[in-house]
Amino acid sequence: MDKEKTPTDSGEGGSADGDNDLFAEPESAEAPRKRGLFRRHPVLMSVATLVLLAAGVVLGFVLYLNSLLGDIDKVTIGELPDNQRPAAVDSEAVNILLAGVDKGDGRTITEIQEGGWDPGVLRSDTIMIVHVTADREHAYLISVPRDSYARLYDDAGQPQGVDKINAAFSLYGPTAYIATIENLTGLRMEHLAVVDWAGFEDITNALGGVEVYIPETFYDNKQKREWKQGNQVLDGEDALAYVRTRYDLPGGDFGRIDRQQNFIRSLMSKLLSGGTLTNPFTFTPTLRAVVANLTVDDGFDTGEIRSLALSLRNLRSNDVTFLTAPFGRFDTTSAGASIVRLDPRQSNELWQAVEEETIEQYLDKYGKDAGSLPGPRGVS
């Protein structure tokens, strides 16, 4: 007759020590605790920590950028009668009126406005219309010569006398500047941006210099300096002198426009193609320099500025076209002032092309007479 099996006999839950198994702790209590995911995979923990740190840095950088954009000075734009303005753009395209101004008496535009506009304090010798296409794949910068003879409009949108177009900003202020350009072009300006030309000194230095090409050596009698032939890396002071050069250039003020556009093109090329946008150590001081010398209309809020900038993140310098409003002829007023008369027919074609986003067809039609900026080695 077989003996009754015991736990020891069966080998289940026991050991050779026999009775000692009766007092043993349950097996589950003796098993070591499982370590957590990150303790079992220290490399994974390190990667996660770095990701979290990077995310924190990025978030902090974004918040800092938003703070910088929030520091941009704002200028108040008065209410212009809507029935006297061109129709608003019926697409995602954007027209921004850009004014390059001098230092004046040292007050900002906002400070001048607070005391009532002071005629003659600020001059806008640089006038550009920036058209950003609806698909955000191209931008056009169209310069209007400051001596263009045109009907001026005041800050209520009412017509005034005929004068050089840059007098609109000087005499009546930024709202009148918008009204005058809108009446000249038939284009609605969504926003206004005013840049202190002296600020290009700060921006250039923040970028570590900007390179331009001088086709041949010449001496600027007005600024008492020589420009030597060849590639020149301009620091801030040189950049300011470069964009201000007017005398001793072929075409006079048109030569100055070419230089301004050429410098902006070179600056944009370095900003967009040289890794500046992806390097916080160069992008941050550059953006800080831009913000310190930029004023926008009070309707251009931080969110819209940020959204526009993000929508243009894939834009490169080759996607930006520079041109000048069609030249008709030089003339002199009855008072003896030298003026520029724009070509009325071709100008109307250009403004219509901007509105309909057919600028490339306009450029093809007029070719070398379209007023396009020469290549980087063709600007005096």
Report on this structure.
This protein has 380 residues and is α+β, with helices and mostly antiparallel strands. It folds into three domains: 37-70; 81-198 and 297-380, Nucleotidyltransferase, domain 5 (2-Layer Sandwich), CATH 3.30.420; 200-292, LCP protein (Aminopeptidase). The chain is built from 14 helices and 15 strands. The chain has helices at 7-10, 27-30, 37-40, 42-70, 109-114, 167-172, 174-185, 199-206, 236-244, 253-273, 280-292, 302-311, 344-356, 359-366; strands spanning 73-75, 94-101, 124-132, 139-143, 149-153, 159-164, 191-196, 210-214, 218-220, 225-227, 230-234, 294-297, 320-324, 327-332, 338-342. It has a seven-stranded mixed beta sheet, with helices on both faces. It has a two-stranded antiparallel sheet with strand order 5-6. Helix 8 (199-206) crosses helix 9 (236-244), helix 8 (199-206) packs antiparallel against helix 11 and helix 9 (236-244) runs antiparallel to helix 10. The relative contact order is 0.13.
